[in-house]
Amino acid sequence: MGKPVSIIGNCFPGHKLPHSIHPWFCKGIDHEICFLKVDEHVRCEKWMRDDNVDSKESKTASWFKRFIGREQKPEVTWPFPFVEGGLFILTLRAGVDGYNITVGGRHVTSFPYRPGFTLEDATGLAIKGDVDVHSVFATSLPSSHPSFSPQRVLEMSEKWKAHPLPKSPLQLFIGILSATNHFAERMAVRKTWMQSSVIKSSNVVARFVVALNPRKEVNAVLKREAAYFGDIVILPFMDRYELVVLKTIAICEFGVQNVSAAYIMKCDDDTFVRVDTVLKEIDRTPPNKSLYMGNLNLLHRPLRNGKWAVTFEVCKFNAFVGILI
């Protein structure tokens, strides 16, 4: 008996679906690629499989741990979303990064667009297999996060523009990690803590650090945003979570080579920075001393699976001597 699996793919116009480009297989099991995000959704949700027997512990032991001495709550999983002879409602939503599929209102799987894809390339939808389609409903009602609609959140006003980079050295450079399509998050930062008086005085400079998106139209909007507000550094590579370290390096290089900052800070676009508090801590530091603000984890065990996985090529040891967070 076959194992339950959902297969999704896309193809170029003129080709049939079986010849799709890199089809995505969702098998409902833990796999490191399943934790990669598409529009803030995991690529594949986990579901219960009758054919999957945990070799590490018996079902009796598993249930025993649920009630005695288990620190974490039991993981919640759902059955395979399709049942023979059963009705279901499937929703296919086109997001910024890819397609998101829900069944019965519950997210099942997401898969990214192929490089260079635009929604205008989508000319049809094909559903294969032993499925009887009772009805199809298509809509374009706005139901997405504000970041997916930059024209609704970007306020093209002079008061939100950044000052030009100062020619003299400055005290602090703040690099803000941001995703290509986080238009709403960047606008919120511009209207809140980036209005700090010390940033306005050019003693502190803040810039968003953003990589490219696989969708050309998203990059086009990003470039217009960067040209207008003057506060975005666009890096020449596709944005992927495992390349976040390159963004960190870019922040350090910009802070040294472009603005000659005495101190460099990194944060995310969902962080509210108390710039005055950071500067007070800097001012308390003697000139002959270095300053690090953050967390230091000693003997941290590297994760081998999931979103924060560290490969054996990067670290072959079972524990880091120390890691800065």
UniProtKB/TrEMBL annotation:
GO cellular component: Golgi membrane
Location(s) in or outside the cell: Golgi apparatus membrane
Identification of the protein by name: Hexosyltransferase
A Pfam family it matches: Galactosyl_T
Domain Galectin: start-end pairs: 1-139
Keyword Transmembrane set for record: yes
EC assignment: 2.4.1.-
Species the sequence originates in: Populus alba (White poplar)
Protein family (similarity comment): Belongs to the glycosyltransferase 31 family.
Membrane topology type: Single-pass type II membrane protein
Matching SUPFAM superfamilies: Concanavalin A-like lectins/glucanases
GO BP term (any one): carbohydrate derivative biosynthetic process
Source species, domain of life: Eukaryota
